[in-house]
Each structure stands twice: as C-alpha cells, then as structure tokens.
Amino acid sequence: MSATVSLVAFATATIGAVVGAAVGRWRRRLEHEQAARHALLSESESVKRQAIDEARAFVLNADVLAREEGLSRRQAAEERLTSMSRRLERLVLRNAKLEAEVTVRKGELARTKAQLEKREQTVRVFEKDVSAIRSEVRKAESDALKRLEETSGITAAELQQQLVARALEAAQAEAANVVRQAEQQTAGAEQIRMSKRILGLSIGRFSGHYLTERHLSLVPLGEPRRGRPAVGEEQLAIIAEVAGVQLTLNEELDAVRLEGLDGVGREVARRCLNRCLKRPVRNAEELKRVALNQKDQLAKELLDLGRKAFAALRIPRAHPEIVDLVGRLNYRTSFTQNQWKHAVEAAFLCGMMAEELKLDAKVARRAALMHDIGKALTHEIDGSHAVIGADIARRLGEAEIVANAIGAHHTDEPFNSPYAFLVAAADAMSGARPGARRQTEDNYVGKISDLERITRGFREVQEAFAVQGGREVRVYVKEDRVDDLGAIDLSSRLAQTISDEMTFPGQIRVTVIREFRAEENAG
Average pLDDT in the 242-264 region? Predict the structure, then answer.
C-alpha cells in the first residue's frame, strides 16, 4: 500500500514538473512574440514617418518644378505671340502695297480696254473693206477662169487632173530610176562576179550526182487466176487502213493503183503487196500483222536515213522527230527529184558557199538539210512547206537563225541572216542543175505561154517574146507611149508581177526595148 502511494506521489511530482516546464516555455515564447510585435510596430511607425516625410518633399519638389515649367511655357508663349504680332504687321503692310498695285493695274486695264475697243471698231471697218475687195477678186478670178476655159477649150478640173497625173507619172518614174540605181549600186559588177565565182566553186567541188528516181504508183499483180486477182478487195482495205493511202484495182485486175500524197504510206502499201504476192497470207489478222511489221520496219529505215544524212554532213543530230522527217523526204519527190538527196546536195552546196564567205559551214549545212522538212507533212497540214518546216524547227528547239533560213528560202519570211540567202541559193542550184528535175514539154510550153501572157497584159507593151528557154523575156514598147524613165519603171513592174504569179527555179531577165524609128519613102 505504501509502495502504491509512493508511485502516485512520484507520478504526481513528475507531471507537475513537466507542466511547470511547459508553462515556462509558453510564457517565454509569449514574451518573445510580444517583444517582436513591439519592435515591428516601432519599425512600421518609423517607416510611416519616413514615407510621410518623403511624400511631403516630393510634393514640394513637384510644386516647384510645375511652377518653373509654367513660367517657362508662359515665357515661350509670350515670345511666340510677339513674333506672330510682328509677322502680322508685315503681312498687313504687304497687303496694303498689293492693294495699291491692284488699284494702279485696274486703272491701266481700263485704259487698255478702251484702246482695244477703239481698235476693234477700226478692224471691223477694215474687214468690211477687205470682204468687199475679196468679193471683187473672186468675181474677177471667176470671170478670168471662164475666159481661159473658153479660150483653151478645157475646164480647170480637167487641167488639174492632167497636171496631177503627169506629176504622179514623173514622180513614179523618178522613184523607179532611183530604186534601179540603188539596186545597181548594191549589186555591182564586182559583187556579181564574186557571187558567180562562189557558186561556180561550190558546184565544181560537189561531186554527189544522183540518179533521178520516180516512185511507182502502180503495183503489178500478174495475171488473175480464174477471174480473181492475186490480192482481194478485203486485203486491199486492210493494207489501205494501215498505210493510210487508197488502193484501187484496175479493170483488168492485174495491178493495184496507189493513190495518196503520203509517199511513206505508198511505200508501206507497195511492200505489203509484194509480200502478199511472194507469200500469201491466210487471214485478215495475219495480213494486218504483216502490214504493221512492214510499217515499223520502214519507220526504222527512215530514222536510219535521217541519221545517215546528219552523219554524212558531219553536223550534230537534231531532235528525233526532225531526224525522222529528214528520212521521210526519201519518199517525197519534186518534179521527180528525190527530196532526201536534194536536201543533202543543197546542204553540201550551202556549206561550201559558207566556207567561201568565212561563215559557219555547220550552221549552213544544218539549215539547208532541214529546209524542206515541211514537205514530209504537207499532206497532213495545210500551208507552205517552208512555214511548216520553220514552225517545227522552232518548236523542237532549233536555233532561230536555222528556223529563219528554213522559213525564208521561198520568201515566206524576211531574210534575217546571210544563212537564209545561202539556203535559198543552194535550193535553187540543186533544183535547177541539168538533169535534176524532169520538165515535160507541156510544162515548158505552159511556162513560155505564161511569160508572154503576163507581159502582154500591160497597156504599155506592144509585143513580148520569151527567149533562151524561158530564162529571158523581151518586151517591145512604142516610143510615144513610154519614155526612158517609164521603161525602167515598166521593167521593175513586169519583174515583180512575174515573181508574184509564177513559180520557177533561178531567175528570169526582163528586157524592155524602146526604139525610135524614122521612116520615109523615096519616090
């Protein structure tokens, strides 16, 4: 029992000690917080007093600055007002001077106006007198003109027309004489001699003579068996569809006529017919396959021909489409002249002339080789083959100097470079050389008749004769119809008309002959 009491007393003492220690710590903490709060209050009061002092100082400073700025602005405003007052005074003085000047000018203007009115009155009087005098002059001129017309027997209008016509004829004749002299000075004897020399050297150096070929338009089939041709209508229709030409059996059933402007298509049809004659086909499908194979084979040959032309001339190849068109010229003829061989021949001639003139021979050959590529397409596209060829060359990336030479060789485009003239000359040389083209008797007679018909159609011409195989036309005029200057003008007009209405290789000389004859009979 005593032990228990001891324990309780110990626990009570312990708890009391702990509680007392805790209460002591709490009191010390409370005192510390009160001291800190008192310090903060003191500090806040000090900061507050300092802020109030600074605010009062700022307000005083701002008030001083505001008063100083106000004084400064007032002083500036007073100075500006003084300046504007002075300027206003100057403007008032100037305005007064101007008003004085205006008053003086008004007085002068009034005096001038009065003087003008007096002069206008005088002028009106003079105008009346002049009008009366003009009426009298017109009447006198009219009377004089009537007397002159009665005396001369011709009216003034007719005389004016005659004078104008004579003046116009004289001016045209003089202009033609000036043009002729300019042409003669441009193409002098030395230039003509040099041109002939270059042409002669080029022709002499070129040795590529070709035989004239004509592509047959009639394929023989042999004698028909049992009244049936070797190739039937159905087979011809299939071949015609692939080749793009028209095939027609003749009445005897022993030949097929090839009709169409496409020489390549005619060649495809000819090869298909020969293949069918050597080894007959069994059905339509096989025939169509054979025709397509022949067409593909010919296309490869044409491409090889184009490459061969570029290689022979030693010039870089063009676009594959142009190479193909050059090859296609092998199956195009002009007056029986093979156009592929004509193009190569013209290219060689053009290159040699370019070398003589110190020009680029490769450019000249290139332009001359392509100058007729439009002929390979003239059965597909309407228009001049020169224009078509130039458009193709430009579209496929050829140089403008080459394209212009192609388009200008038949004067469809202006000659923009020396190469254009060389291509035209080479084309004429290749087509006009002996044996190059076949000219029938009908064509020859027609050319002579056209020359004489055109020249006799002019009212000044008395008679005309074509001589030297149509290379010259001699025109005779009456002496009383055409004077010397008129003969020069007539020769120019005749040459221009012949160039416009006829197509011919080379040149045609026009000679106008005006002679004076005095005849008398001796009795």
Answer: 77
